[in-house]
UniProtKB/TrEMBL annotation:
Residues 290-355 form the HTH luxR-type domain. Keywords: DNA-binding, Transcription, Transcription regulation. The lineage of its organism: Bacteria, Bacillati, Actinomycetota, Actinomycetes, Micrococcales. SMART domains: HTH_LUXR. Pfam families: GerE (PF00196). Transmembrane segments: none annotated. One of its GO terms (biological process) is regulation of DNA-templated transcription. GO terms for molecular function: DNA binding. CDD domains: LuxR_C_like. This is Regulatory LuxR family protein.
Length: 357
């Protein structure tokens, strides 16, 4: 049976032209549950956008898509770098001959990183269910029952870091608060004997929806951590020196049950490979340009530009900088005019080319 590409689909839904157009809610940050399965919905919307010479949200509504479906599909397509849907109605669609190969390559790299961890994860699964309560397996792979257990395991593992520590942070209410209030605890500081410790952290891009998150991530980076953003993380991981790791699923089980403290070297090494693979696919947190690099732009414009480059909507930028969305819209127009750009995509590439970011 031949499998079709997720971007090749010919079924289209038509509705009368007098269908009500849903109101714009600002950005594409919400992700309500669509009626159609996610990938199928995104494919249908993407195919319509490719065929529309002037794609708009209102056109999608006339095609019969509900507001939650439009928001969900555009959120997915923007995270994949296929569209820029941050404006109120108009949608910028990047040429598929450039974006689709890049997206496919990212999927292939992520698949390779995941496959490299399969053997170790299978070992973990079997060891955790062995049930004999004995031996090296129970000492090397320990089930964690509470959030306190997770935090204790994190500090035990991080304390022994000597060369490299990588943390993937899946979003949860608890971790959002940790990032905002205790950013310094996200990745352990190097000890005197580990002065050259390489520290890396990957956060879900939607963390930028939390007020104060951008400043917190900038503070983490200023502390020497290489901070990156990715559309989604399945679970949280702390990987240390290919010697130990903590798998944290408290975003799925708020009490922390089912998480693991790993000190089995082969599995810890596989988890490190997975973390490094996902880190390499993630986007570096953009730096706010300052001083001479700003040219005629203000320091606030530099912050707006950095958040734009991170994929933030106007609504999210307003929340992070504690200014009105109308002010953000004015500053974005001024930035685009200064850069000679007609779209936000073009503004981002021009800013990089000029060394602003």
């Amino acid at each position: 049976m031949t499998r079709r590409s997720p971007f090749i689909q010919t079924e289209w839904r038509r509705v009368p032209d007098n269908v009500a157009i849903p109101p714009y809610r600002g950005g594409v940050t919400e992700q309500p549950e669509p009626r159609a399965p996610g990938d199928q919905l995104s494919t249908r919307v993407y195919m319509h956008l490719l065929r529309d010479p002037s794609p708009r949200r209102s056109h999608l509504a006339k095609e019969g898509f509900s507001e939650p479906e439009i928001v969900a599909a555009l959120t997915t397509l923007q995270a994949r770098g296929l569209v820029d849907a941050s404006r109120r109605d108009a949608i910028d669609v990047a040429p598929p001959e450039t974006t689709l190969p890049a997206y496919a390559a990212d999927l292939e790299r992520q698949a390779r990183a995941t496959r490299s961890a399969i053997e170790g994860l299978a070992h973990m699964y079997s060891a955790a269910r062995a049930g004999d309560g004995s031996t090296d397996a129970s000492r090397e792979i320990r089930l964690l029952d509470t959030v306190d257990d997770i935090e204790n395991a994190f500090f035990r593992a991080a304390r022994g870091a000597e060369s490299r520590i990588v943390r993937l942070v899946a979003r949860s209410e608890r971790m959002d608060q940790v990032v905002i209030r205790h950013a310094e605890s996200i990745v352990a500081k190097p000890t005197a004997r580990a002065g050259g410790l390489e520290r890396m952290a990957v956060f879900e891009q939607s963390i930028l929806e939390v007020e104060g998150a951008f400043a917190a991530l900038e503070a983490i980076r200023a502390d020497g951590v290489d901070v990156r953003l990715t559309p989604h993380l399945a679970f949280s991981v702390l990987a240390v020196d290919r010697a130990s790791a903590v798998i944290d699923i408290s975003h799925l089980e708020p009490q922390g049950g089912g998480s693991l403290f790993v000190r089995q070297r082969q599995l810890a090494s596989a988890l490190m490979d997975m973390c490094i693979g996902l880190f390499s696919l993630a986007t570096p947190l953009p730096r706010s340009p300052q001083g001479a690099a700003l040219g005629r732009l203000s320091e606030r414009d530099g912050q707006v530009l950095a958040l734009l480059a991170a994929g933030a909507s106007d609504q999210t930028i307003a929340r992070q900088l504690s200014i009105s969305q109308r002010t953000v819209e004015r500053r974005v127009r001024a930035i685009m005019e200064e850069l000679g750009a007609t779209t936000r995509f073009q503004a981002g590439t021009t800013a990089v080319r000029r060394g602003y970011l």
